[in-house]
Design brief:
The chain is an alpha+beta fold. It has 6 helices and 4 strands, in the order αβααβααββα. Strands 1-2-4-3 form a 4-stranded antiparallel beta sheet. The protein is globular.
């Protein structure tokens, strides 16, 4: 009999904790993004220009990226997000040598994420819309944290 009560209490506590965690999570308001469909050749040239002819420290990723763009006759999706007016926030979002942008790229199955200092935007390229939107949401949440 006591094991039934223990299980019930554990379940109730778990439900209470889940509800509490859900309620305390900071939420960012829903936002709509302008998403542009682009062909692989255009995307190849854009990323080549942004990276100064694919000057990317991670050679494994660089090779993968170039192959993705050269081997496909597909359309990709492009989106952007205004950066923060606070440069320290942008630096923290990007990470040392772009480590957080690289992690966000990998976690969200994106092709490439770039912080454009000229236009003050984060730029995103992905193989599909859901991956693109997830990556933009991820960066937006880091900017507002």
């Amino acid at each position: 009999m006591s094991s039934i009560n223990e299980n019930t209490n554990t379940q109730t506590n778990t439900q209470t904790n889940t509800q509490t965690n859900t309620q305390t999570k900071p939420s960012i308001p829903k936002m709509y993004y302008k998403i542009i469909q682009k062909n692989a050749r255009v995307v190849y040239n854009e990323i080549k220009e942004r990276t100064n002819n694919f000057t990317i420290p991670n050679t494994e990723y660089k090779d993968w990226l170039i192959q993705q763009l050269q081997d496909r006759n597909l359309d990709y999706y492009y989106g952007f997000l205004k950066d923060s007016p606070d440069q320290d926030t942008n630096k923290k979002t990007i990470g040392k040598e772009g480590c957080y942008l690289m992690k966000t790229t990998q976690l969200n199955n994106c092709l490439f994420i770039w912080h454009n200092r000229t236009t003050h935007q984060f730029e995103f390229w992905a193989l599909n819309k859901p991956s693109l939107v997830h990556a933009i949401d991820h960066i937006r949440s880091r900017l507002s944290a």
